[in-house]
Amino acid sequence: MNTFDYVRPATIAEAIAAAAEPGAAYLAAGTNLLDLMKGGIARSNRLVDVTRLPELDRIEHLPDGGVRIGALVRNADLAHDPDFARSYPAVAEALLSGASPQLRNAATVGGNLLQRTRCGYFYDVASACNKREPGAGCDALHGENRLHAVLGWSEACIATHPSDFCVPLAVLDAVVEIEGQAGRREVPLEEFHLLPGATPERESVLMPGELVVAVRLPGAATRFATHARYLKLRERTSYAFAVVSAAACLHLEDRVIAEARLALGGVAAKPWRARAAEAALAGVRPNSEGFRRAAEAALADAHPSGDNAFKIELARRIVVRALALAAAGTPERVPALPASPFAPIPGGALHG
Amino acid sequence: MNLSISLTVNGIRRDVELRDPRVTLLDLLRERLDLTGTKKGCDRGQCGACTVMVDGRRINSCLALALSCDGAEILTIEGVAHGDELHPVQAAFIAHDGFQCGFCTPGQIMSAIGLIQEGQAGNDPERIREGMSGNLCRCGAYSGITDAVMDAQKNLAVADRRQAA
Question: Are residues B96 and B69 in the same domain?
Answer without folding.
Answer: no
